[in-house]
What we know:
The chain is α+β, with helices and mostly antiparallel strands. It is 28% helix and 28% strand. Strands 2, 3, 6, 8, 9, 10, 11, 12 and 14 form a nine-stranded antiparallel beta sheet that branches. The chain has an eight-stranded antiparallel beta sheet with strand order 5-4-1-21-18-23-16-15.
Amino acid sequence: MQPLRGAVRSYAWGSRTSLARLQRRSVPSEHPEAEIWLGAHPADPAYLLGDGSPKSLLEAIDENPRLELGAETAHVYGGRLPFLLKLLAADEPLSLQAHPSSDQAKEGFAREESRRVPIDSPVRNYRDASHKPELIVALTEFHALAGFRCPRQTVEFIDALDVGALSGYRSLLADQPDDAGLRTVFTSWITLPGPALDALLPLVADGCIRYLSTTAHHDGGRFVAEARTLLELGESYPGDAGVLAALLLNRVTLSPGQGLYLAAGNLHAYLSGTGVEVMANSDNVLRGGLTPKHVDVPELLRVLDFEPAEVEVLEPDVGSGGPVLYRTPAPEFELSRSVLSGGASVSFDGDSPRILLCTAGRVVIGGGELEYVLEQGAAVWVSASDPLLIAEARWGDAEVFSATVGALAG
């Protein structure tokens, strides 16, 4: 067990207060802080702060993968830590994006390698050959767009906006309320030429304003959150086709402790809030708008899942006094959360690599002859060779997340 110093990633959409306050640093931070990476991703590994000079977790695993990961995990994942844990804080919306499946990632990576696209090129889509399923668990109220809404509900939303310029798209969705209809409308919108977008987006904004000021009072405010989101996105990203695309997506609000799992092909955008995120150890992103970065429309359309579905908000499985688990189908990771009252404790089995992250209060973590005080916002690396550990909330209430490898096949 060793203290872990995460890598702070500064993006424009980040917060100058949330992560600094969580880690009890001075507020505001010098730059917007969007993510703190706690893992062994080659682009920005965390560092072990044990005896001697700091060493990157990536280097430590490379030197002895069987010791750090365990023999089975090292074998299955080629000596790599298969997950990446993050603290994430969004003050502004992230780009509209989706992630490829495993087969799509392997094929896309090989294709770009054969074309000799530099790995750090801004037009590179696939920076590795892995898929990127991910799970976000809210620490504060958290807002997102995720997955395509049922087309019939989108038709009702368009009717509520009462924008004549949307009538053709409305009719198409009404006549074909399925994945094919969604694909057609989405493709039409994301490929609209600039002048057409510049003409249509103000009309949509006017429809949102009209709805919020009048219609919402008559339909119980059914689409208030959606209309406000479109206005906010239009203000932040004028002339961006992603604003129109957002009209097709589910609008989600998570309360603290609730989670959202995003599988391959799910078009999504985090809007605001702070959370703990865990994902397969990949950096493959196909963007669809709400960003000045590269948008490869044909490649995005190859990976998107247009099947409409309601969003499933994950409530953790509550056990008998142990950590509560967020169940997902991803084999690369497993995330649990322990909310401890003062004096309570929770144990974590050995034989598996693990990162423990304290998000409230502080705990003492002990195992064998080791004992370490884990402060709020801090994390420790637990190698597969470490013994069973116990986290105790010795000084009052605390919250601890545990990220480890999911169940291995066979």
